[in-house]
Amino acid sequence: MPTVLVVDNALFMRTAVGNMFKEWGFDVAIATNGKEAVDLYSQIQPDIVTMDITMPVMSGIEAVKQIIPQYPDAKIIMITALGQQKIIVEALENGAKDFITKPFDSNQLKMVVDNLLSV
Questions:
Q1: Is 49 helix (H, G, I), strand (E, B) or coil?
Q2: Total domain count for the chain?
Q3: SS3 for 97?
Q4: pTM over the 0.85 mark
Q5: What CATH number does residue 23 fall under?
Q6: Phi, psi (rounded to 5 degrees) for 51
Q7: What percent of the chain has pLDDT over 90?
Q8: Phi-psi bin for 95: left (phi > 0), alpha (psi -120 to 50), beta?
Q9: Structural domain of residue 75, as residue ranges?
Q10: Mean pLDDT of the chain
Q11: Rounded to an integer, what distance in angstroms lies between the CA atom of residue 105 and that of residue 46?
């Protein structure tokens, strides 16, 4: 069973995204900030990660900067709000594989996930 790590400080987003992945047959792990994401990533080495950008303790960008040097093949999808294009460029330059802008529906996310997992 493939594993996803859903990283978001908002309970609503963690629940919504986690439920989408459960419907698609994924085992779901949850982190509420970038520091938890870095720690959990090394423990479970998930097949895919959804990473919010703006979080307390450690941002999604900082988490990407810590995960990618150790795990260059990590498939991290940044979850962004409108108007965060500059931050998305920084995330992609640091090894994030793709991004999706809120609000999104499950079909949009599924396309990005399928595309990354088929590489």
A1: strand
A2: 1
A3: coil
A4: yes
A5: 3.40.50.2300
A6: -125, 115
A7: 89
A8: left
A9: 3-117
A10: 95
A11: 22
